[in-house]
Amino acid sequence: MDMPTKQQAVASNREAWNDSARHHKDSPEWQGVLSAVSQANFCCLDDTLRGVLEQVGVEGKDVVQLGCNNGRESLSLYALGARRVVGVDQSAAFLEQARELTARSPHGAEFIEADIHHLPTELHHRFDVALITIGVLNWMPDIAEFFRHVAQTLKPGGAVVIYETHPFLEMLDPEAADPYRLDSSYFRSEPFVQHQPIVYEGKIEQPAAASYWFVHTLSAIFTGAIEAGLQISHFKEYPHSNREELYDRYEKQVAQLPLCFTWVAVRV
Ligand SMILES: C[S@@+](CC[C@H](N)C(=O)[O-])C[C@H]1O[C@@H](n2cnc3c(N)ncnc32)[C@H](O)[C@@H]1O
């Protein structure tokens, strides 16, 4: 397999996400969010993320969500008292959905189309909290570079809050005959490549731009953040799954794997 450059991988991921936006709109979840978002206290964040955000404190704060997708999580931040919310994503098609949701919401979140590696300067040194949720880190070809860009968005004392899938899961294939057999190295350096539309449940048998999913070890995540001038203040692993339904099979085991984590780091 010819490896793409970092820029090629990011560009191909953009194409794949743009193409997949129409499939996500076909889901019952979209219809549910579309009607719920008009409530001032709309919040689709689960208790785990809510708890961490409440601990960090978003009340009266300016928050940026990087990789905001259709903006439903960004809009949820108002229920926690956020003063201003900006969502950033490189997919124009998903931001169109975010604007559709905002038009129904009483809150005025702003959505900006940008690759996280090329954030406009107006986003620099502006936020109290930068939020990154489920399924963002692995689209980044270089996790250390990613954290340098994330850190730039924060005011001194501002915090990055991450709620992500656990990298141990990248070693397993939930669809394998034995879903517990170690299938791929924890230290894998080449990305997983998919040529079908990116959907959260099931598969759509249609060709799509290649999407590149990069595996990052916990140590790479920690080191990347530390090198970007961030001081880690919280890290917790959980036995529940926050990713595609297929991964629910790893929950409630006697020998339980960590399935997701929350993580906070402060810009010093
Ligand atoms: C799995 S989604 C995040 C979903 C989010 N947790 C939610 O539930 O809405 C990942 C998002 O990251 C965005 N993304 C991937 N690479 C990006 C990049 N380099 N810059 C900006 N956004 C990116 C994709 O367009 C996609 O919308």
Write up this protein.
With 268 residues, this protein is of the alpha/beta class. The protein has a single domain (6-267), classed as Vaccinia Virus protein VP39 (Rossmann fold, 3-Layer(aba) Sandwich), CATH 3.40.50. Helices cover 29% and strands 21% of the residues. The protein is built from seven helices and nine strands; from the N terminus they run H-H-H-E-H-E-H-E-E-H-E-E-E-H-E-E. The chain has helices at residues 6-25, 28-36, 47-56, 72-76, 92-104, 143-152, 218-227, and strands at 62-66, 84-89, 110-113, 127-133, 154-165, 192-194, 211-213, 230-238, 260-267. Strands 3-2-1-4-5-9-8 form a seven-stranded mixed β-sheet, sandwiched between helices. It has a two-stranded antiparallel sheet with strand order 6-7. Strand 1, helix 4 and strand 2 form a beta-alpha-beta unit. Helix 1 (6-25) crosses helix 5 and helix 6 (143-152) crosses helix 7. The longest helix is centred in the first third of the chain and has 20 residues, at 6-25. The protein is globular, with a radius of gyration of 18 Å. The mean pLDDT is 96. The protein binds S-adenosylmethionine (SAM). Pfam families: Methyltransf_25. Residues 63-158 form the Methyltransferase domain. One of its GO terms (biological process) is methylation. Residues 1-11 have a biased composition (Polar residues). Residues 1-25 are annotated as: Disordered.
